[in-house]
Design brief:
Blueprint lengths: L1 E26 L6 E11 L3 E6 L5 E24 L29 H11 L5 H15 L1 E2 L10 H7 L1 E2 L1 H14 L4 E8 L11 E9 L3 E5 L11 E7 L2 H4 L2 E6 L4 E13 L8
Parallel strand pairs: 5-6
Antiparallel strand pairs: 1-4, 1-11, 1-12, 2-4, 3-4, 7-8, 7-10, 8-9
Length: 277
């Protein structure tokens, strides 16, 4: 899929803030499944921005504003070409050993109920890839997609207990379930450029990547019930949402903020589908 993409986040503060510091993970990296032809991140009013890489290899912009600041507009846009590689992720640098992605976190922790669900979901399936497909399918049926995003996602065990969640919440459940089976898994943030999500879904999307021998990292979108295709634009990954969040910010002052996000996509052409092999 060849597409021009523009993501915009508009933030309004109830009271002017004296200063603002934030980290933005809004810049995709190229790999075998996506080519970044042009991309830029801009902020209005102008801010001091520094580009770097975090521990996981994500591209991060750190920036700061001197106040008083009443509103802020963040724009990430460019032209990309994505390919349907059946979710297989090749061509990204591996900065950390696989064991890191077995670590338990508060946000992606499997309690005894989720652990039992994971075991039951893969029972009778010997093939490593088949086991993860079975797990994704079972979670897609068990947890309903509930569009509506809070400030931060609920912990995986709470989402699983409620049997409903946003895309990022369901993705953390899948990460937790895979790790409970001893399989390395990571949380991925990005954008979904196609149709198929419920009305009211957030512009930002999320899914999981799970390491399956001998193929390596493969994406699994439990919200949609299939592996990422060319409508998935991958941005960042980490152990859970907090490592890959599109924006994390802190400000000086006593205020609250209201944020409105939008995503505009102009599609040029479709790519052909491929199979995991």
């Amino acid at each position: 899929m060849l597409a021009s993409v523009q993501f915009q986040l508009q933030i309004v503060y109830a009271e002017p803030v004296r200063a603002l510091n934030q980290l933005l993970r809004l810049t995709p990296r190229g790999f075998d499944g996506q080519e970044i032809k042009d991309w830029r991140v801009e902020i209005q009013p102008d801010a001091r921005m520094r580009r770097s890489e975090d521990t996981f290899g994500n591209i991060v912009h750190s920036c700061s504003h001197d106040g008083p600041l009443e509103r802020l507009t963040i724009t990430a846009e460019g032209e990309i070409e994505t390919y349907d590689v059946a979710g297989v992720v090749r061509g990204l640098p591996a900065k950390l050993p696989l064991d890191v992605y077995l670590r338990d976190t508060d946000a992606a922790h499997a309690d005894k109920d989720l652990l039992q669900f994971a075991k039951d979901s893969v029972a009778g399936e010997a093939d490593p890839l088949g086991r993860i497909h079975a797990l994704m399918g079972a979670l897609n049926e068990a947890c309903a997609f509930a569009p509506g995003e809070g400030e931060t996602p609920r912990p995986a065990k709470e989402v699983f207990a409620s049997r409903a969640g946003s895309a990022r919440e369901i993705s953390q459940v899948l990460v937790a379930a895979a790790r409970s089976l001893g399989v390395p898994a990571r949380f991925v943030s990005g954008f979904f450029l196609g149709d198929g999500l419920s009305e009211g879904a957030a512009p930002q999307h999320a899914w999981a990547e799970i390491h399956v021998d001998p193929l390596g990292w493969i994406g699994f979108d439990a919200t949609l019930g299939y592996c990422p295709r060319d409508a998935h634009l991958r941005i960042a990954h980490g152990l859970d949402y907090f490592d890959a969040a599109p924006r994390r910010a802190g400000y000086f002052g006593y205020s609250s903020e209201e944020a409105a996000a939008s995503l505009a996509v102009d599609v040029g052409r479709q790519a052909s589908w491929q199979a995991q092999q």
